Amino acid sequence: MMADLEYVRLYFSLQLNEAVCWWCYYIREISWQLLIALLAYLCVYVFLYTILKQVDHTAWQLPGPPSRLLLVTAHPDDEVMFFGPLIYWLTRSKTSEIYLLCLSMGTCHWLDIKQTLCLLMFTSMLAGGDRRRIDELWECTKVLGIPEANVTIIMSGELPDDQGVQWPTDTVAESILQYIEIYKINAVVTFDKYGVSRHKNHISLYFAIAALCIEKKVPAYCKLYVLESVNIIRKYIQLLDLPVSLLSASYWYLVTYEQKQTIKSAMAAHKSQYVWFRKLYMIFSRYTFINTLQEVSALDLELDLQFDED
C-alpha cells in the first residue's frame, strides 16, 4: 500500500515538473515573440512620425475644410484636454474659422436660472460672482488662437457640472441647433457616445447631436463629427498610438512634440484645474497629440441604436 502511494506521488511530481518546464519554455518563446513585435511596432511608429512631420496633413483632415466649425464642449478645459490638436490646426488654417460653445461654467452649481437658457457672449459675462473658470477659459482660448468673439458659454440650472448627471437632450440639442443656424456652421465636432472619459456630461453632447441627426433637424450644409474614444491603454501611450489611430480613423489631426507645447501652455491657463493628475494627463494622453474623428450619419445612428437594444 505504501509503495503504491509512493508511485502515485512520484507520478504527480513528474507531471508537475513537466508542466512547469513546458510553461517556462512557452513563456520564454512568447517573450521573444512579444519583444520582436514590440520592436517592429516601435519602428513603424518612428517611421510614420518622421514622415508625417515632413508632409502636409490636409488630405486626412476634415473635408472642405469646413469654413465655419463649431466645437461643442461640456466644461472649461475640455477644449484643450481633448481637442487640442484639432484647434491647433484649425486656428492656423486660412480657410477655416472655429467657434467654441461651452455648455457649463465648470463650477456653476450656484446658478439658479429656472428653466431659462442664457446664452452669453464671452465679452458680456455676469458681473461679480466667481468668474475664475470663465477667465481661465478666456486665457486658454487666447493661447490657442480662438477669437474672443467666437467663444460662447451657456449657463443653465439644467446643465450642472456633475459626472453623475446626464443633461436633458432637448435642451442641449436646441442650443446647438440655434448656434448652427445663427452662425451658418457647416461642421460640428463634439464627443462620441463614450465621452472619452465616460463623463455623463460629455455623453449628453453626443446624444444631443444624435437626436438632431435622426430627427433630420440639422441643415443640409452642416456635417456632424465626433471625437473617437479609445481604451485606457491607447489613451495613455502618447504618440505610440499613432499607427493604430491612422488605421482606424476617418479623419485625424496630429501635432508634433514641439507643437504640443502650445497646447500645454493653453492648459496651464486653467490654473485652478492644472493639478498634478492633469499635469500627468498632459504628458501621457494621446489626446494632446492626436485627434481622430468620425462622421455621424443618421444610418449609422439607427444601426447603433438597434445594436444597443439587442
Automatic annotation (TrEMBL):
Enzyme class: hydrolase
Transmembrane segments: 32-52
Molecular function as annotated in GO: N-acetylglucosaminylphosphatidylinositol deacetylase activity
Keywords: Membrane, Transmembrane, Transmembrane helix
GO biological process, one term: GPI anchor biosynthetic process
One Gene Ontology CC term in the entry: membrane
Enzyme Commission designation: 3.5.1.89
Family in the record: Belongs to the PIGL family.
Protein name per UniProt: N-acetylglucosaminylphosphatidylinositol deacetylase
